[in-house]
Design a protein that fits this description.
Elements (H helix, E strand, L loop, with lengths): L28 H9 L4 H14 L3 H10 L10 E8 L5 E8 L9 E7 L28 E5 L10 H17 L2 E11 L1 H12 L6 E5 L27 E6 L11 H9 L4 E6 L9 H14 L8 E6 L7 E2 L2 E6 L4 E8 L2 E7 L1 E8 L10 E5 L2 E6 L5 H11 L8 E6 L3
Parallel strand pairs: 3-4, 3-5, 5-6, 6-7, 7-8, 13-15
Antiparallel strand pairs: 1-2, 2-4, 9-12, 10-11, 11-14, 12-13, 14-17, 15-16
Helix pairs in contact: 1-2
C-alpha cells in the first residue's frame, strides 16, 4: 500500500493576532455561527473562530453550539442554479445544483451527487450551455441534487476531483440545511467508475455509492488516468448499489463477476443488479428507482461506527475514514482497523507506524482514561484533553454538525 498523509487546514491562526473584522462586543451565538459557517473572507473566519472560543464558555458549550449549527435562511436561490468553484490553481469546476422550490431551512435535506459519463471531452467553456441540458428533470422536492462537471483534464478519479466534490458539498453546506448523514454519490458510465473511486479512496462524506454501467477496473489502468491500487477493505465502509447491463458493449455485467465475487466473499454490503438484455444506457432506471430509494432510506451514514478500518498507500491524501487517520506508513501500504467499546480501543495496524483517533464526547467518556491496545500491546492508558482548537479545526474542515471531534489522540505503533 502507499504512503498517505492527510492535509488538515492549519490552525496556526490561533497563535496570530486576529483581524478586526467585527466589533469587539455584541455578536450573538447565531451571528458568530453564521460567520463561521459562511464567512465573507478568510479574515472573517479567523476572527470568528477567535470570538467563538472567547464567547462560548467551555468546550462542551462550544460543542453544543456547533452541533446545533447556524440558523439557515429561507432567502436563498431555489430551482436550477449554475455555479462554479475555482480551485487554488485557477481551474474552474462548474456545477449545477437543484434546490426544491419548497425548500424549508428548518429541515435538513438529503443530497444526491450525480456524476455524468463521457469524461474524455474538452473542458466546459465559461458561459456554455452544458448545464442547461435537461437537468430540470432531476428536480425533486425532497432533496438537493448536484451535477458537477468532468472533462479530459479532470476525470472523476483524478486528484483534482477528489478535492472538488467535497469542496462543492462544503459550499452548499454554507447556505443550505443539509442532512450530513444522507449524502449519496451516484454515477453513470464514467461517472459510475467515479463512484467506485470515491468508495475505494475517499468515503468519509458519503452515505452510500450507486455506480451504474461503470467498471472499477478502469481505476487500475494507468492509461485511463488511474493506475490506483484498490483495497477491498475500504469498500466495507459504505454500501454499494451496482447496476450493469447484460449486453452492455463497454462493461457487460459478466465482466464485473470477479469483482462481485470478492464483494460476496468479503461480505461487503452491496446489491448487484443485472439488467437482462440491457445495454450501455439507463432505460431501466424508472423501474429500478423505487428499490434504489429504499436502499438510500435504509442506509444513512453512521458517523461513529464502533468498528472501522482503512487501507492507505499514501499520507498526503486518501488516508482518513471518518474518525481514524493513517499518518505514517512503514510499508508500501498500511491497514488500520479499530474496534471501540466504550473507552476501550483495540487496534490492528499493519504497515502503519503512526495514526490518529478522532474522539467525539458523546461516543467516548473523555472524563475517564482511554485504553488503546495496538497489535496486542497496550500503548495508552490515560485521559485525553478536550480543547476548542481541535473542535474548531475539524468543524472548519468538515462543516459537519453530526461528526464533531473535541479531542484527537495520535499514537505510534509499537515495534
Amino acid at each position: 500500500m502507499k504512503k498517505f498523509r492527510y492535509l488538515i487546514p492549519a490552525m496556526a491562526f490561533l497563535a496570530l493576532p486576529f483581524a478586526n473584522v467585527f466589533a469587539a462586543e455584541g455578536l450573538s451565538q447565531q451571528q458568530l455561527l453564521a460567520s463561521f459557517w459562511s464567512p465573507a473572507s478568510d479574515d472573517e473566519r479567523l476572527a470568528t473562530a477567535s470570538q467563538l472560543m472567547e464567547s462560548s464558555g467551555d468546550v462542551a458549550a462550544l460543542y453544543q453550539w456547533l452541533k446545533t449549527g447556524p440558523n439557515f435562511s429561507a432567502d436563498v436561490p431555489k430551482g436550477q442554479q449554475e455555479s462554479v468553484r475555482v480551485a487554488e490553481d485557477g481551474t474552474r469546476f462548474p456545477f449545477v445544483y437543484l434546490i426544491p422550490e419548497s425548500y424549508d431551512p428548518e429541515q435538513p435535506y438529503p443530497v444526491e451527487f450525480i456524476l455524468h459519463g463521457g469524461v474524455s471531452r474538452p473542458e466546459w467553456e465559461p458561459g456554455g450551455g452544458w448545464w442547461r441540458r435537461g437537468f430540470g428533470s432531476l428536480m425533486q422536492e425532497d432533496r438537493i441534487v448536484v451535477v458537477p462537471a468532468s472533462w479530459n483534464e479532470a476525470f472523476w478519479w483524478h486528484e483534482n476531483q477528489a478535492e472538488n466534490l467535497p469542496a462543492i458539498l462544503r459550499i452548499l453546506k454554507q447556505s443550505y440545511n443539509i442532512d450530513e448523514n444522507r449524502v449519496t454519490l451516484t454515477g453513470i458510465s464514467d461517472g459510475g467508475t467515479g463512484a467506485y473511486f470515491f468508495a475505494f479512496k475517499q468515503s468519509t462524506e458519503w452515505a452510500a455509492f450507486f455506480p451504474y454501467i461503470g467498471h472499477p477496473g478502469v481505476l487500475r489502468n494507468g492509461r485511463s488516468g488511474g493506475g490506483y491500487r484498490l483495497y477491498f477493505e475500504n469498500l466495507m465502509a459504505k454500501p454499494l448499489y451496482i447496476v450493469n447491463g447484460e449486453v452492455d458493449r463497454l462493461y457487460p455485467a459478466s465482466s464485473l463477476e470477479p469483482f462481485i465475487q470478492v464483494l460476496r466473499e468479503a461480505e461487503i454490503q452491496h446489491i448487484f443488479k443485472i439488467i437482462e438484455d440491457g445495454g450501455h444506457n439507463t432505460r431501466w432506471l424508472p423501474d429500478e428507482t423505487p428499490l434504489i430509494e429504499q436502499f438510500k432510506e435504509a442506509n444513512p451514514r453512521d458517523p461513529f461506527p464502533d468498528h472501522i478500518r482503512w487501507v492507505a498507500d499514501r499520507t498526503d491524501r486518501f488516508n482518513r475514514n471518518q474518525w481514524i487517520r493513517v499518518d505514517e506508513l512503514s510499508g508500501e501500504q498500511g491497514l488500520l482497523e479499530v474496534r471501540r467499546e466504550g473507552n476501550n480501543f483495540v487496534v490492528t495496524a499493519r504497515g502503519v507506524s503512526e495514526f490518529t483517533l478522532l474522539l467525539n464526547p458523546e461516543e467516548v467518556n473523555l472524563g475517564r482514561p482511554l485504553l488503546v491496545n495496538v497489535n496486542g500491546t497496550t500503548v495508552h492508558v490515560d485521559s485525553v484533553s478536550e480543547n476548542k482548537e481541535t473542535l474548531l479545526k475539524w468543524a472548519q474542515q468538515d462543516l459537519d454538525r453530526t461528526m464533531l471531534f473535541t479531542a484527537e489522540l495520535s499514537l505510534q505503533v509499537p515495534d
